[in-house]
Amino acid sequence: MARTERLVAATAGARPAGPGRRGDGTLPIPPGALHRVGRSPDDVAWASILGLGLTQGADPSRFNYCDGLKRWMDVLFAATLFLLLSPMLIAVAIAIRVDSPGPAVFRQRRVGRGGRPFTVYKFRTMTHVASEGLVRFRAPDGRLVHKMADDPRITPLGRILRRTSIDELPQLLNVIRGDMSLVGPRPELAEIVGGYALWQHRRHLVRPGLTGWWQVHARSELQMHENTELDLYYVDHLSFWLDVRILIETVHVVFFGYGAF
Questions:
Q1: So what's the pLDDT on residue 1?
Q2: Are 214 and 185 in contact (CB under 8 A)?
Q3: Is residue 31 part of a domain?
Q4: pTM for this model (two decimals)
Q5: Do residues 166 and 192 lie in contact, with contact meaning Cβ atoms separated by under 8 Å?
Q6: 257: left (phi over 0), alpha (psi -120 to 50) or beta
Q7: Bridge partners (DSSP) listed for residue 211
Q8: Quick check: is 261 in a domain?
């Protein structure tokens, strides 16, 4: 079964039929939509199924920007930053190896654009024996969370790396490879994405980012569904100037260490 057919089948019955929708709740793809949107059949299917409305008259230039100017900016700035920061990255890697047993770089499978899995790179901030999968904690208010400020698995050096966001810098390689963008929604674990409601998958219409709207407004402080709503704000307002604003605000947030753990 083709990917687009699997996507349609997976969402059948997920939304009630309504104006402009098929009986299975998905939006039809009209003739000529591929040419107007400038996307692959899979991506147009994603836009249709997840209700973004690219095929219903929305301005497609926002998503052409993802594969045009935005992609060129990603490669240029990520490669430049990686070269300039190489001495610091090497020093951090050595410090991690000295601080605790295990590899300096942590690899983990995440979900990217179009629901495609990829391997994300981060500096290791936890003990090597810590679980690589999703671990849920009970917060003081009773809700389940997958991150906590006093996580005992985090090493002393790891806390510094997280507070300064230095642990994220190896993801510059993901940006250069095309798995990620400098700005976008955060890439999530498959275990978390597997529990998404249909509306939450719209965050996968763009490449995940090294930073994003959520990171500069909440970082680790919100519940997961609230993070998704901030990610969807970015998807719905995607533009060059929004990316510039987020990058500038990221510098301020990282400098003061707001909400990171």
A1: 46
A2: yes
A3: yes
A4: 0.73
A5: no
A6: left
A7: 183
A8: no
Gyration radius (Cα) of the chain, Å: 19
Q: Is 7 helix (H, G, I), strand (E, B) or coil?
A: helix
The CB density around residue 146, as the number of other CB atoms within 10 Å, is 15
Q: Are 104 and 211 found together in one domain? A: yes
CA neighbor of 208 nearest in space, from 238, 175, 233: 175
- Whole domain around residue 26: which residue ranges? 3-58
80 and 193 co-located in one domain:
yes
Instruction: List the structure tokens of 34.
Output: 């591929």
> Do residues 212 and 240 both lie within one domain?
yes
Phi-psi region of 131 (alpha: psi -120 to 50; beta: other; left: phi over 0): beta
Number of domains in the chain: 2
Tokens of 145: 């969370």
What secondary structure letter does DSSP report for 56? G
pLDDT tens for 127-185 read 876 544 455 545 555 545 555 666 778 899 999 998 888 999 999 999 999 999 999 99
Q: What is the mean pLDDT of each run of 10 residues along the chain (261 residues)?
A: 40 36 37 40 54 48 81 96 97 94 92 91 84 50 56 87 92 97 92 82 89 78 65 89 93 72 43
Tokens at residue 232, please? 């969807």
Asked if residue 178 belongs to a domain, the reply is yes
Instruction: Tell me: do 36 and 156 sit in the same domain.
Output: no
Do residues 122 and 53 touch, judged by C-beta distance below 8 A?
no
Tell me how far apart the alpha carbons of residues 81 and 174 are, in angstroms, rounded to a whole number.
Answer: 13
